[in-house]
Amino acid sequence: MHIPLILRCGLALAASSSAALAQWQQFAIAPSPTARVGAAMDYVPLNGGLLLFGGSAPLINNETWTFDGFAWTQLAPAVSPTARSGAQLVYDSNRGVAVLYGGLASNISIPPPTNQTWEWNGATWAQVTPAANPGNRYLYGACYDAVRSRVVMYGGATTQLISVPNSQTWEYDGTTWVQVTTTGNPGPRERPAMCFHQGLGKAVMFGGGNGSGVTDQTWLYDGVAGTWQQVAMAGVKPPGRNAATLSYDAVRGLCVLTGGQDANGVLADTWTFDGASWTQQPTTTTGVRDHMAAFLPNLAQVVKFGGFVTGPFVLTNETWGIGSGVFGQGCAGSNGTPSLAASSAPRTGQPWTLNMGNLAPAFSAAILAFGFFQLPGIDLGIIDMPGCSAFTFADITIVANGIGGSASWTWSSVTGGIGDVFFGQAYCLDPGTTPLGFTVSNAVYVTLSY
After folding, report:
1. What pTM does this model have?
2. pLDDT of 115-124, one tens digit each?
3. Which end of the chain has fewer CB atoms surrounding its CB within 10 Å, N or C?
C-alpha cells in the first residue's frame, strides 16, 4: 500500500488544499445552450434526459436541447413551436408526451403571450387544438399529477405590458383543458415554484408574486378532492420569493427549492420540503432566478440551467447538479480510458457502490483514492504517470479487485452528516502504460445530502 502514500506526497508538493465544495457542483460541459432565462424544461425519458425548449437569450428563441447528464445536444425537429419564453414544459408519463403551453413570443412588450398547446413525442413537436384552453398565459406554475394523469397549471400572467397575476387552476388530460373550481385558493400568483410530490400524491406550490410583493406561503393541491390547502409552518421556511424552481427528487422523496428573487435581489439558497416541513440545506452555489431545473434520474440529481445571476442583463449558461456526479477525464490504458461511476447517490445508512470499467483485463484491479478536497487536475507526470491528472488527494485508499476489465467496491452502510462532501478517483493497475504502471479514471464527487 506504499503507492497511495507516494501519490499523496507527490500531489502535496504540486498543489495547496482548497475549501471543500458543498452540495452543488457545476458541470464542465461544452457545447451547451447559450445563456438564457425563461426556457421550459423537464425530464423526458423519451430522450433519455432533460428536454429544454426556447427561452430568452436575450432574444427569444425556439431551440430544442436535451441533456443526458454528460452532454447537451441541440436537436433539429421537423416541426417546432415559434420562439417563446415564460412557458412551462411538463412530461405526461401516461401518454408519453411532453406538454408545452403558452409563453411569450416576443421581446416587445405589446404582444400578449400565446394560448397554444404543443406536444413533443421524442422526435418532433406537434401543435394540438383542444376545445378549451386557459387563454393567453405565461409565468405560471405547472406540474404533472401522476395520480390522475393530468397536467396542472396555476396562476400566471395574461399580458406583458401590465403583468397582473391570476388565481385560476387549470388541468389538461390530453384532450382538452378544464378550469377547476376548487375549495380554497392561494390567490393571485405569478412565477410561483411548483412540483408534484409523489409521496403525498399532491401538487406543491411555493412563493410567487401576488401583485403587491412576493409570498412565502406553501400550498398543496389535492386534485382528487379539488382542494387547495395552505400548509401551516411551525418551523423555519424559505423567505418569500418568485422566479424560483421546485423539483421533486424521486430518490429521496423531497421537493427541492432553489434560487429565485426577493426585494433584496437574487437568492442562492437551497431548501427541501418533505410534505410537512422545510429544511435549509448547507449549500454553496451561484444565486440565480428565472432559471430552469428538473430531476434527472440517471444521475439521481436535481439539475439547474441558466437564469439571471445578478441584474436584469446578466445571464448564465451554467449547468449545475446537486448531489453526486462525475467530472474530470481519465487517461488511456491498454483497454481504453478507465471509467468510474456511482450506482446511485449516497444515502446515510444505505449501501453505496462504485463501479470501474475499462481496466486492464489481465489485472482488473484499482486503488480507490478518496479525498476531502478537489484538485483542478494536477499533472501526474511528477510521479511517472505522464498524461494523467489527479482530481483529489488520496486521504483514504481502498483496493478494489474485479474480473474481465471491471471492478466494483461497496460501502455497506454510508455514514456521515448531511452536507459532507468527498471526492474519489481510481488508480488502475496497468503495467506498461506508464512508468509507474498505473493509469487513472475520471473522478466522482459525492455529497451526503438530505
Report:
1. 0.78
2. 999 999 999 9
3. N
